[in-house]
What does this fold into?
Amino acid sequence: MIVQGLKLTMLGMMVVSSFLVLLLIIIHLSAKLLKPYTEKEASLVTSHRPSGIREETPPDDNRKLTAIISAAIAAHRARIGRYRAP
It folds into this structure.
């Protein structure tokens, strides 16, 4: 009975291993076959970059944003009733 269990275990492991190898082969083949399409899409994405120059945010904007986020976190924690500020 133990020998039959070991045979069944080995059969199951071989089936799973062969499925994973087959899946790996299919993924590699599809990557090679679809490579021209992905390169075309990547070139389209990089060609449509915004032309405007972004202005850098002043440091006080970052401080305001930090204060707003901190206040939102404190309000959320107070609403939950945990982690109250000292």
Observations:
- The first helix runs from residue 2 to 47.
